[in-house]
């Protein structure tokens, strides 16, 4: 995408954390942004704050849409088209994690993780694919390093993120014939509200949300002929690497 000004983006789960950081970066580039949330109030509040980052040519709207519902996501896409007339960029970001041994993990925790992280990413593409084929746009999923490295206590989260990585790579092969770009970003630790975390100075070694925003802008600006389809990104010096 040569000129990002005036493009339109939909980010699932943009009320805080990585989705919010990406929304800030896109608005700064003059891209209109719709963010979604499970609640109308959180979406509206975040959109209001985000509009401080917009400029005359770009603004944000907040929409209630649960990624676990294809119907809810289709309604959100309809509202995006009513507001902005098109859709160029889709970021399947919404996600959560339940961690613990398989001996303790409940069926409800398993289902919520898979439905949100994996089915959610599929429903996001399903609800937007006609629009991004029309605009020759870009779909980016936020997977995780947990989508390639498994760890103790990570069975549900690993299963969901390995799924997101595989799903996105296969979708890339399906959609490139339409000149639609598809990538998955696989971050290590990012300073967000994930899993009850409170961002603070203690997390200064982690990737910050604006760093992921910058990475997304770099991907969008890349020459149309070139596609980084799977991007691992990690803190340069995590505590485990210190002498
Ligand atoms: N933080 C990390 O270290 C890290 C590393 C790798 C990958 N990731 C991935 O990055 C993505 C964003 O996580 P984060 O770290 O930014 O977490 P976060 O700060 O907790 O933000 C999560 C966002 O997802 C939204 N969300 C959750 N369930 C949803 C649903 N069913 N429908 C719609 N929105 C929903 C939340 O919105 P509401 O609460 O307003 O509904 C919120 O905006 C996730 O996919 C996560 O797996 C995170």
Automatic annotation (TrEMBL):
Span of domain Ketoreductase: 7-194
Xref: Gene3D superfamilies: NAD(P)-binding Rossmann-like Domain (3.40.50.720)
SMART domains for this protein: PKS_KR (SM00822)
Keywords noted in UniProt: Aromatic hydrocarbons catabolism, NAD, Oxidoreductase
PROSITE patterns: ADH_SHORT
Family matches, as InterPro entries: KR_dom, NAD(P)-bd_dom_sf, Sc_DH/Rdtase_CS, SDR_fam
Domain of life the protein comes from: Bacteria
Family: Belongs to the short-chain dehydrogenases/reductases (SDR) family.
Name under which the protein is recorded: SDR family oxidoreductase
Annotated source species: Jejudonia soesokkakensis
